Amino acid sequence: MDFLTTVTSSGLIQQFLVGLSRTTILFVVASGLSLVLGVLRIPNVAHGSLYMLGAFLCYSFATLFGKNPIGFWVAIVMAPLGVALISLAAERGLFCRLYDREHLMLLLFTFALMLLCRDIVKMIWGAEYRSLAPPVVLQGSLSILDLPFPKYNFFLLSIGPFVALALWFLTQRTKIGKIARAAAVDRDMVSAVGINVSWVFASVFVIGCFLAGLGGALVAPTQNIAQGMDHTIIMESFLIVIAGGLGNVWGALLGALIFGLTDSMGILVWPQFSIVFPYAIVVIVLIFRPKGLLRATW
Asked: 10-288 adopts what CATH topology?
């Protein structure tokens, strides 16, 4: 009875809030993957590596500007921008030559990039674990319903809705978003009216990779920054994108919400098998909704 009381009160509320903060990271990374996969039709396996690179760059920039009171905030901005610049170079030098190739070739190519990125990260930062403390203003806890909740996790909760609204505005209300949606359906027709589809694809690819780097930068203060942190996130991101609906920003948010909360609640209810719960939910969703929870927009 005490266990049930704990589950239905303090433990349940705390795990719910933790799950929401994890949802933010999952959504930011998965929404970037959804853009790239929806518009460019590239199953970018290296997306998780860009997430890892964003975390390491955030650590380096925060260390470089550590004596500055705004050093952490500079790092949060500079890390995803660094990832975006690297992705632009990769897109202009490599990806733009492969858009017409088979999906299997693109899959193998991005897998090779993932391995290359992992080795580069190891060469620059080594194999040791790194850690990054949040800024002083986000250290400690605040009280929510008389329960302690980390301030940094509360900060993460505010990021998710902002990113979702920004992506919705970009894809639905801006010229480049409308062109990108048209190019996803018929790139030849868009090119025929005089639009440089190649640079549209480059812009979408860079935005998607920026979001991967942003996710890595945001997660850096919450866990060890290390080799291999890209493995889990890329599998989770693909599942979230597929379950939510390809190219649908709100679908990615819904998928991340289900995945993050299920994972968090599974730890509370049955910790030995908590990893199974989110994957089981995704399987159930795909059985009844093979095209995703919400309509694909690309």
From this structure: ABC transporter involved in vitamin B12 uptake, BtuC (1.10.3470)
